[in-house]
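User: For my dataset I need records formatted as: sequence, then structure tokens, nothing else. Please produce one.
Assistant:
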Amino acid sequence: MMSNNDMNPVIPATEVDWDAESAHFDEEPDHGLRDPAVREAWAARLRAWLPRRAGDVLDLGCGTGSLSLLASEAGHHVTGVDLSPGMIGLARAKLAGRDAVFLLGDAAIPPVGEQRFDVLLGRHVLWALPDPGRALRHWCGLLRPGGRLVLVEGVWGTASPVGISADRLTALLEPLAADIRVERLSDDPLLWGREVADERYAVVATDIRAAADIRAAADGKASGSAG
């Protein structure tokens, strides 16, 4: 019998050359945010998702830095991480002179050392990772007490859909966070520069569990699977 997780698989974007994509990445309305209406739509969402008080935001899979720029304009200190040198170069240029740094590295295990953050922000990155559950556990360990995860994801296409469903993502988050809120985004064409019919959403997870509790939950799940 097919499980819910099998019906909503995470399909890694292993065949995408993101460095090659960087040259024209910002041409998509929701990537470059060049249309003022699209830009303001994302800025309004970020204002609702991010803390009002200025803090440290880790933008995972930051791409060319469009959301990093909005977070910086809202007063936050931003650290962006991306595996593509091309993306990082464009992000650094986009936020030149601002309170932001960009690091070349794997979003699943960002190269931030002992630094901790108030917010971990990721848009359309978790679906591309080979082990999203493991990445989420690692990310929770990078948050300060009271920190939050802000994840924008979706399932794109109909004939051969790719992505991660909201049901799948919330199931992965349940052992990690006590408060998980899903916000549907498909019905807001301003975010995408057009009407869309596929699944697009944001998850804001707060009240992150202690690292010891997360490890215990992971160990328990592994024991159950072994049995």
